[in-house]
Design a protein that fits this description.
- With about 325 residues, this protein is mainly α.
- α7 packs antiparallel against α8 and α8 (about 200-215) crosses α9 (about 225-255).
- The protein has nine helices and six strands, in the order ββαααβαααβαααββ.
Length: about 325
């Protein structure tokens, strides 16, 4: 990968094209250009047979320049750096800052390409491409361009290390609403590539990111917590909150659906029948001084309701 910085201070990761793919693209372009040149030459010879030798020579030179030099320049300009050979190989010509090329870039590349590709049979271009760190030939150096690969295999997502178990839930009270999305993206990218960085460079980057996150949350980062572990724990807390907003609200809505008319509610399970209640035990009958049980007035001994009539003793 080659990191290019645009005029807007945006870092771009581009993969420069190497010599084999570039040579194949140039050969395809030359094959097409030569085929067109031969066809145009045959047509001109047949149509200008009545002209003198000087006019035919001038037409031949003009045809050579227009087809083998002007044709590639026009194609690269109109297609923004993608000729037929580059399309077949998945390549594109871009500026040093990653932007699309213009006519002046294609013109410089085409004119210098006549010397280093056509006149020297590509020897100068091959040597320059092998010497350059990004595979640039002389035309790219003078034009300020770079040939990059468009069809890059997608890389697998980096492993996100989980925070230590003793940090789970420790930062649940932090206010994360003031942390911008670009800072979260930087934290994610650092955690995913932490194992690929130099230890000192990675620690310094983690310390800076932790200070930025702590400044946005309003709470300083604990000194006993390492910066990478702090970033992993805070990021996990943010993901947990986002998951709760996405799925926790759905569960809450399901609980309040019973109060909304027209929303079907699952029937509750039937309650068990109440246990039978035993009848109250009647109090023991009072005993008269004579030893006989005394019958309450107005209440018969068999438990029926009384009539108010009491027989004589």
């Amino acid at each position: 990968m080659s990191e290019l910085v645009t005029g807007e201070a945006v870092a771009l990761e581009l993969r420069p094209a190497r010599l084999p793919s570039r040579a194949l693209a140039v050969l395809l372009d030359l094959a097409v250009a030569v085929a067109v040149y031969v066809a145009v030459t045959i047509a001109l010879v047949a149509s200008t047979s009545s002209l003198d030798v000087a006019a035919q020579t001038a037409l031949s030179i003009a045809t050579f320049v227009l087809v083998l030099v002007g044709g590639p320049i026009a194609v690269e300009t109109l297609s923004h750096g993608r000729s037929l050979g580059k399309m077949a190989c998945g390549l594109r010509v871009v500026r040093d800052d990653g932007g699309p090329i213009r006519f002046r870039h294609s013109l410089v590349r085409g004119l210098i390409g006549v010397i280093e590709i056509l006149m020297t049979l590509g020897v100068v271009a091959c040597v320059a491409s092998l010497v350059s760190a990004r595979g640039r030939r002389l035309g790219d150096v003078f034009a300020g361009t770079l040939v990059v690969r468009e069809r890059v295999p997608s890389a697998s997502a980096g492993f996100m290390p989980p925070p230590p178990p003793w940090l789970e839930g420790r930062f649940s009270g932090l206010d994360l609403s003031a942390v911008p999305d670009d800072l979260w993206l930087a934290v994610r990218q650092y955690l995913a590539r932490m194992g690929q960085l130099d230890p000192r460079v990675g620690w310094a980057m983690a310390d800076r990111l932790a200070a930025d996150v702590a400044a946005r949350t309003g709470a300083p980062a604990p000194r006993e917590v390492p910066p990478p572990a702090y970033l992993a724990a805070v990021l996990q807390e943010r993901q947990a909150r986002e998951a709760w907003r996405a799925f926790g609200s759905a569960q809450t809505a399901a609980g309040t659906a019973a109060s909304v008319p027209g929303v079907p509610v699952a029937p509750s399970p039937a309650a068990p029948p109440p246990a039978p209640v035993a009848p109250p035990t009647p109090p023991p009958p009072a005993v008269s001084p004579g030893g006989r049980p005394e019958v309450a007035r107005g209440v018969p001994s068999d438990g029926r309701s009384g009539t108010g009539f009491v027989p004589p003793a």
